[in-house]
Amino acid sequence: MAEKKLTHLEKAVSAMMMVFIEKLKDNDKLTKQQFKELLREELPSFVDQAGECGDEIFQDVDLDKDGAVDFKEFSMLVASYAWVHFEAIQELIKALDSVE
Ligand SMILES: [Ca+2]
Prior knowledge:
Blueprint: H1 8-23, H2 32-42, H3 44-50, H4 55-61, H5 71-99
Bound molecules: calcium ion.
Residues 62, 64, 66, 68-70, 73 line the site of calcium ion.
């Protein structure tokens, strides 16, 4: 049977899930330490832009304030990251269009 080829978006979502799952130990949520490690390893530019080590980002991402980051909270962070970069790309395209 032929293997179904994943689309770009399906691959991206799979990668996002694997990053989260690989960082988990025995829990179903990331501890603050695991979350900060994940940020440094997988989204270093996000940490650099925030100008801090991840504590403030953790506070913002931990929406239910249970001291851990579940997959839903993590997904919202990734969506925010995508949104910020999409905005930046839109601005770059506008700037390039105005030069032409
Ligand atoms: Ca939480």
